[in-house]
Write a structure and sequence with these properties.
By secondary structure, this protein is of the alpha/beta class. It folds into three domains: 317 residues, 2-Layer Sandwich (polyphosphate kinase like), CATH 3.30.1840.10; 171 residues, Endonuclease, Chain A, CATH 3.30.870.10; 185 residues, Endonuclease, Chain A (2-Layer Sandwich), CATH 3.30.870.10. It has 19 helices and 27 strands. The strands form five sheets. Strands 10, 11, 12, 13, 15, 16, 17 and 22 form an eight-stranded mixed β-sheet that branches. An eight-stranded mixed β-sheet has the order 18-26-24-23-19-20-21-27, with helices on both faces. α15 runs parallel beside α16. The radius of gyration is 27 Å and the shape is globular. It holds the Pfam family PP_kinase_C. Its EC number is 2.7.4.1. Catalyzes the reversible transfer of the terminal phosphate of ATP to form a long-chain polyphosphate (polyP).
């Protein structure tokens, strides 16, 4: 398998206090390389490998819009501010560029040397303009004139006179021109917009061979046709470019003024932000690149080499031609009849015992039903919910509006600072407010990331509270591809604290009582986790069993990293499942000998957060919305809630143990960042997501007997 050197510079492994630590952005690039590794894995079905190329590209685009823009911002801050940083932003930018350039070379090799030949084996041909036969050339020329001509916007480039504005993330073709009548004249250059935002990126071509599929990318249709737009010039060559702009709104730390208005104003500026990345075809001559840098006012660190094509996230839309054998076999979503069947009283089933759902293996319909039933149940008086990201056509939010019509008191807390969902959240807020829902918006300086739902119901014994808690968003669409836990409970120990969290969100007044069961960001989340780790440390020092299992998306917070090292040195056995950023460096003598970490990248996005502590044999289990990032632990309202039901606790432990045993899709996280396959004792293959599906299915069948 192809590998590349991802070993970071020394300064990214050691902080000023000598603590082994991998910079978050270097670790993130290693995560994205794990995505790329799936694209080069021949055991992954071919069309799914194309999907992983799309995921890699989409991830990297967002990374440069936000993280690289952040580093560039830090380069411009004062010297005194820079001295407070724990790393040099210029060095970070240099190292990021080095790694991304190497990854892009691998990306091109995977696409050109692996994917394209295998597509040909399946009689799928992605043609370039010189590959076209006469019939296809006629088709391409007609398609260009009929569909593309109004959008291409040709313009000659003059370094000192004409500086066209490049749209954010749009595709352009740059042309190297020579005047036909004066071949000794200086070379000229031009720019043409490729209308991939208006038209499909992949175009079917006519073909006479049975069973053969001929395709061409929109880019190559433009390449074939641009000569018509520049009469009097010979086109020496063409090269693709793309500019990504800073997409950060820089409002997270705002404490004054009208926050909603600031967000609305910032959204209009996102498409005209400063440059965060200028990508160009690596075959472009340096002289031409120099001209483009001058025309567009680019600096050295703005530019990055890529292959012939950009915006490769468009591979999400690559046609499958009905060839299902080139994709992962379907895993039909498992309907939870106990909670979804209309014959069953959902609230009665939650009253019987706590209920756990494991998405996307199980259907999300029970969650939708919870809110729809609450909306029409005459015994329900109040419904409350938090919103971070939701589906465009949200059945849950529609249920809230229906509930208002049915006379319920409904309130929602909307976090409008959810990156890239700000506009959608503002729109939903206005719609809900018009429908009569009590809408509460973001706090200045703090994001609300907790996933909470609460229903108040008048029953014969008095008012009763029901809660739905989750590690993921109230989002019907992502619930089909994100691996998350959902949890229904009527346990008063939990529901009463959920009610106190909502009171805080609605009044911004500090709760008078401490949280005894929940760990809540802004109150006791960080201290609660540290207390649980300290207990394991004390147990280990007494020679007693002590272990911790952590499943999260990311860990970057330095004090928490240091706390885990302290636990490891004391003899606590720590197992980590980290999808993305992992600043912890496992296996370092004197720091982390007792820490092992893996990452799982497969058909579903691992998104659940689970914290498990041995705790003297009591085994405390928490589900959470919070990663162990400084932003989550210190600057967000997050929740970690305990699991008290023995059956639910056992199920969660079973699912986590499957992931720890994964030797097919799990990769080892260590100081070398090579993402090697996880080796587990025994030779029986364990692919955790597939094995989890069948375990969930078996447990459901047993519970429904």
């Amino acid at each position: 398998m192809t590998t590349i050197d991802l070993k970071p510079l020394k300064e990214f492994l050691e902080t000023k206090d000598g603590l082994p630590y991998i910079h978050r952005d270097i670790s993130w690039l290693s995560f994205n390389y794990r995505v790329l590794q799936e694209a080069m894995d021949s055991s992954v079905p071919l069309l799914d490998r194309l999907k992983f190329l799309a995921i890699y590209s989409s991830n990297l685009d967002e990374y440069f819009k936000v993280r690289m823009a952040y580093h560039r911002h830090l380069v411009r801050v004062s010297k005194s501010t820079k001295q407070e940083l724990e790393y040099d932003p210029k060095s970070a930018i240099k190292e990021i560029r080095r790694i991304v350039n190497l990854q892009q070379e691998v990306f091109s090799k995977v696409f050109d040397q692996m994917i394209i030949p295998e597509l040909k084996d399946q009689k799928i041909f992605l043609l370039r303009r010189l590959d076209l036969n006469d019939e296809q050339q006629i088709f391409v020329e007609a398609y260009f004139k009929d569909n593309m001509l109004p959008y291409v916007q040709p313009v000659l480039l003059h370094q000192k006179r004409i500086r066209p504005f490049l749209n954010n993330a749009a595709l352009y073709l740059t042309l190297w021109l020579k005047p036909i009548e004066n071949p000794n004249a200086p070379d000229e250059y031009a720019l043409v917009k490729m209308p991939s935002d208006q038209l499909p990126r992949f175009i079917h071509l006519p073909t006479s061979a049975p069973g053969r599929q001929d395709m061409i990318m929109l880019d190559d249709i433009v390449r074939h046709s641009v000569s018509w737009m520049f009469p009097g010039y010979a086109i020496e060559d063409t090269y693709s470019i793309k500019l990504t702009r800073d997409a950060e709104l820089y409002i997270d730390d705002e404490f004054s003024g009208d926050l909603l208005q600031k967000i609305r104003s910032s959204l209009t500026k996102r498409q005209v932000g400063s440059t965060s990345r200028f990508v160009y075809d690596r075959d472009m001559p340096l002289a031409m690149l120099d001209v483009l840098k001058e025309v567009f006012g680019l600096e050295k660190y703005d530019t990055l080499r890529e292959g012939r094509y950009h915006n490769n996230f468009d591979f999400f839309k690559f046609p499958d031609f009905g060839l299902n054998h080139l994709k992962n076999p379907e895993l039909p979503t498992l309907a939870c009849k106990l909670l979804e069947n209309e014959e069953n009283d959902l609230f009665a089933k939650i009253t019987e015992k706590d209920r756990l759902l494991n998405f996307p293996y199980q259907s999300y319909d029970a969650v939708i039903r919870f809110f729809e039933d609450a909306a029409k149940d005459p015994l329900v008086t109040h419904i409350k919910i938090t919103q971070y990201r939701v589906a465009k056509k949200s059945q849950i939010l529609q249920a809230l509006m229906d509930a208002v019509e049915n006379g319920k008191q409904v309130s929602i807390f909307i976090e409008v600072k959810a990156r890239f969902d700000e506009e959608a959240n503002l729109s939903w807020g206005e719609k809900l407010k018009k429908a009569g829902v009590h809408v509460h918006y973001s706090f200045p300086g703090v994001k609300v990331h907790a996933k909470l739902g609460l229903v108040r119901r008048m029953e014969k014994d008095g008012p009763a509270l029901y809660s739905y808690l989750s590690t993921g968003n109230f989002h019907e669409d992502t619930a089909k591809v994100y691996s998350d836990f959902g949890f229904f409970t009527k346990d008063i120990r939990l529901t009463s604290e959920v009610a106190r969290i909502f009171t805080f969100l609605e009044t911004v007044k500090m709760p008078q009582q401490e949280f005894k069961h929940f760990m809540v960001g802004q109150f006791n989340l960080r201290s609660g986790i540290e207390k649980l780790i300290d207990y394991e440390i004390a147990q280990a020092k007494k020679g007693k069993p002590a272990n911790i299992i952590i499943k999260i998306n990311s860990i970057q917070d330095r004090p928490m990293v240091q706390k885990l090292y302290e636990a490891s040195r004391a003899g606590v056995k720590i197992q980590m499942i980290v999808r993305g950023i992992c600043s912890v460096v496992p296996g370092i003598k004197g720091y982390s000998e007792n820490i092992k970490a893996i990452s799982i990248v497969d058909r579903y996005l691992e998104h659940a957060r689970v914290f498990i502590f041995h705790h003297g044999g009591e085994q405390k289990v928490y589900l959470s919305s919070a990663d162990w990032m400084t932003r989550n632990l210190s600057f967000r309202v997050e929740t970690a809630f305990p699991i008290y039901d023995p059956e639910v606790k056992r199920d969660i432990l079973d699912y986590i143990n499957i992931q720890l045993s994964d030797n097919v899709k799990a990769r080892v996280l260590d100081k070398h960042l090579l993402n090697e396959r996880n080796k587990v004792a025994g030779d029986f293959p364990c692919r955790s997501q597939i094995d989890t599906y069948y375990m969930v299915k078996r447990k459901m069948e047993e519970s429904e007997k």
